[in-house]
User: What shape does this take?
Amino acid sequence: MAAVAPNAEKILKEIEGQITSFHDKSKGSLEAIGLLFSEMASQPLPPQMICQILKMDEETVRASFEAGNPPRASKEQLVEAIRTSIDPEDDVELYRKVLEKHITRFENTEKIMSALSSDLSSFHRHVPVSSSFLCLLPAGRRVRGQDLSFLLGPRACPSERRAHARGNDSRPPPDRTISQDMLGSRLPRLLRAEPGSLRYRH
Assistant: This one.
């Protein structure tokens, strides 16, 4: 077991409310937790490291994602992950600031999605899902060459598209359309993500 910093329990007690709020809003999403810890570390953390931090078996997590049933981290796993990440020289404000920033993103996303709910159906009927989807992003979030393939899921992954283009795959072409439900579930990811972070993969 990793050594726990002497200030860890004090910091955890002071940010208990923010941890609870973040977990409630993220529903234990590994992607959301990965983005949280990446910001705490000031660098992108690979999925393998997020699994290690949460003490989750990487192969089990991968299999769950591939089966279309993304695993969730419990609040206890999140608390323990934060506990072991605290260094003796850390200040509570570091953790409070990052947690509140991500909580605010969830709150803003909820407000935006609520306001857009009546318009998504019309958008889905009139706008093809392609790079034009970037028009929904605030200007500061638009990144040249941004990877939006996650919107369509694994059916439209680049390797499948290349195989069909070469004629090496006899299976039906991957479905490049996106349902209204998929649109509503994936748009929040665009709204919460940092510029460039959509390349992050589990």
